[in-house]
Structures are given as structure tokens and as C-alpha cells.
Amino acid sequence: MAAHRKPRQSPLGGPAVRTAATLALASAATATLFEGSGHADPRLTTAQVKAKVDRLYQEAEVATEKYNGAKEQADASRAAFDRLRDEAARRTERLNTARDGLGAMATAQYRSGGLDPAVQLALTSDPDEYLERAALAEKAGDRQAAAVTAVRRELGALRQLRGEAAGKLTTLRGHEEELRRQKAAVLGKLEAARTLLARLTAEERARYDAAVAARDSGRAPDGTRATGGTSGGTGTAAATFATGGSAAARADRSSGGERGPVTAPNTRAAEAISFARAQLGKPYVWGATGPSAYDCSGLTQAAWRAAGVSLPRTTYTQINAGQRVSRSQLAPGDLIFFYSGISHVGLYIGGGQMIHAPRPGAPVRIAPIDEMPFAGATRVG
After folding, report:
1. Fewest CB within 10 angstroms: 10, 64, 147, 213, which?
2. DSSP H or E run through 323
3. Cα–Cα dist 245/259, whole Å
4. Which of 8-12, 111-115, 187-191, 199-203 has the lowest mean pLDDT?
5. What are the backbone angles phi and psi of residue 289, rounded to the nearest 5°?
6. Contact 210, 221 (CB under 8 A)
7. Active site residues
8. Do 306 and 271 contact (CB within 8 A), yes or no?
9. Which value, in Å, is the radius of gyration of the alpha carbons in the chain?
10. What is the pLDDT of residues 127-170, one digit of tens each?
11. CA dist 130 to 117, 121, 137, 211, 256, Å?
């Protein structure tokens, strides 16, 4: 009889399952809502905003140097493409001239009937006249053969030039695409920094500006000397303040750095420093090379150009443009590089200080070299 019993329904079957599922989903949604609220980013402190903005500015400078490198390559590719295009135009003109000459010869032959030399001999009563005509005809044949050869040569050269130009155009488009990517990266980092700063209250912004001014002057708010980060860190974000500064900074001072200006070792270094001093106060603009604004490598390039020395465009190429020197060997006019990625450069002026274009919103200025992690130095000129 047990086999005829009505099967028992599970307490979670049918409508009960649907009801339980609905309640579970509602509970999960509520929990997620409260969890999201509970884990929302807390309001950043001024110090945290400063650290993030510093990092964004450094990342923007890395992208700026990549942009500068891509622009240098794009400019070179564009110049090469233009040279090939101009040469192709000249070759085309020479080809058309050669073709016109060949066409004129063909027309002259058609008009003269192109008679066989034996026939011409039979028709003339003067053998001397015939021989003269035959010599002229032979010379004309030689000229025609030379004209054909010239046409073939110009055609081959033109085909080669057009092939090279097509390759250069492909390369140019690749560099232009890289330019667009790096420009977007720079603008994205700068916009993120602006957004963070916009979230500060007036009081917080004043504290931020004071901290940045203290960092840039090499002094902490209490008047002690600021020390920079270590190589591989964020430098400005990781900067700490301590009396006496870093060992490297003390070495700069012990070598006479803070006793006054240091004389440049040669005329060219003096000219580069003089030019850089004349740019003090001009704005930082990423990708700028002067004369009204500069980025970091644009300033050092322009300074040494004024001294008659040609430097490459980017920080990571400028560091290889001269003789490497250690920090203890620094002399006025040397290029000083910062961060492990060699993304910033300044012009050393002695006394543990440099002239550099720091970042957006900070004009060309004199600053201590220990405000950022030292990566290397190069002597040019």
C-alpha cells in the first residue's frame, strides 16, 4: 500500500523555491549595496592627494618623454619621406624630358621615311654625300640608343624611389599612431591629477601648495632641509624631511656647494647655464622646446643648443650624449637625471642645485638636486 502513497513535496519545491530565491536575491542586493557603501573610497587626506598627484605627474612625464621620442622619430620619417618624394618628382621630370627626346627622334625618322642605306646609296648620285648622310644617321642611332637607355634608367630609379617612399610612409604612420597614444596617456594623467586637486577644499589646497613649495625649495615647513627619495621610488611622493639632509646632499655642501655660486668649468657650460637662467619663470608645457615654454628635456636641449652643442630630444637619449659622471664629480653644466626610468633631467649649476622645468603648474626654476631620486649624470660639451 505504501507504493500508492502521494509523494511528499520538498519544503523548497514549487512556489516555496521561487519565494526563497526572490528573498535571497533581495538580501544579496541589499548586502551588496551596503557593502559597496561601506567600502567606498574614504576622503583622501592632503598628504595622500599630494602623493597621488606627484605620482601622476611623474607618470605623465614618462609618457611625455615617450611622446618626445615618438615625435622625433616621426619628424625624421616625415623628412625622409619628403626627400624621397622630392627626388621622385625630379626623376619624373627627367624621365619626361628623356621621353620627349626619344619621341622627337622617332618623329624625325618617320618623316624621313627611314630608308634602307642601300636604297639611299642607289638614289644618290654623289657617293660623298651618301657617306656623310650615313655618318649622321649612325650618330642619330647612337643618340637614340642613349635616349632609350636614359628612359629605362629613370624608370628603374623612379620605381625604386616610389617603393622606398611607400616604406617610409608606413613607418611615418606608425610613429604618428604612437604619438597619438602617448599624447592620450599624457593628457589622461594630467586630467587625473587635476581631478584630484579639484576635490580639495580651499584650506586643503593651501596646505597642499605649502607642502609643494617647501619640497621645491628643498626645505621642510619647519625650515630643515628636505631629502629626496631613493632611486626606484616615487621620489617626490616618498620624500621625507630631516635635519641635515641626505648623505649625498651633505657631500654637495662639503664640496663648497652652499658657499655660493660655482664657476662653470668652460665657456660652453657657462653659456648653457646663462641661457637656462634667462628662462626662469617660464611655464612648463609638456612637449615644449621653447622659447616661451619648456618641458624638462626641451629646456636642457635648448640650453646646450645656445652653447653650440646639439643634444637629442629625450631624457633617455640625452643621458648617453656625453661622458657619464658620478654625483661626487658633478660640475656646473652637467645634465642630471632622475628616477629609475630616466624620466626627468635638470641642468646642474653648482651648490647642490639645478635649473629645471618641473611639471605642469610649476615654472622653470632653481631647485635642489636631492628633491628627486638621482639616477645619473652626463657631461656634454
Report:
1. 10
2. strand 323-325
3. 16
4. 8-12
5. -125, 15
6. yes
7. 296, 344, 356
8. yes
9. 38
10. 556 555 555 555 555 666 666 676 677 777 788 888 888 888 88
11. 9, 6, 10, 103, 99
Question: What is each CA distance from 89 to 114, 150, 312, in whole angstroms?
Answer: 35, 16, 31
Architecture per CATH, domain 228-379, reads as Alpha-Beta Complex (3.90)
Domain residues of the chain, as ranges? 46-197, 228-379
Tell me the pairing of strands 226-227 and 353-356.
Answer: unpaired
**Residue 196 contacts residue 204 (beta carbons within 8 Å):** no
Of 3-17, 51-65, 198-212, 247-261, give the lowest mean pLDDT range.
247-261
Q: Which residue has the cell 619628424?
A: 75
Grid coordinates standing for 115?
Answer: 630608308
| Contact partners, residue 379, CB within 8 Å, separation at least 6 | 322, 323, 324, 325, 331, 333, 334, 335
- Which amino acid, one-letter code, is at 98? A
Is there a cis peptide before residue 360, judged by omega within 30 degrees of 0?
no
Minimum mean pLDDT range among 237-251, 255-269, 288-302, 360-374: 237-251
CA 100 vs CA 103, 106, 108: distances in Å: 5, 10, 12
Report whether 224 contacts 239 (CB < 8 A).
no
φ and ψ at residue 276, rounded to 5 degrees: -60, -40
Helices (H), 279-314: 296-306
Q: Does domain 46-197 have CATH number 1.10.287?
A: yes
Pairing assessment for the beta strands 344-350 and 353-356 based on DSSP bridges: antiparallel
CB 273 within 8 A of CB 349: yes
pTM: 0.63
**Angstrom distance (rounded) from CA 163 to CA 186:** 35
Taking the C-alpha atoms of residue 343 and residue 341, their distance in angstroms, rounded to an integer, is 5
The DSSP line for 259-285 is: GS----SSHHHHHHHHHHHHTTTPPB-
Residue (of 337, 338, 348, 342) closest to 381 by Cα position:
348
CA distance 286 to 357: 10
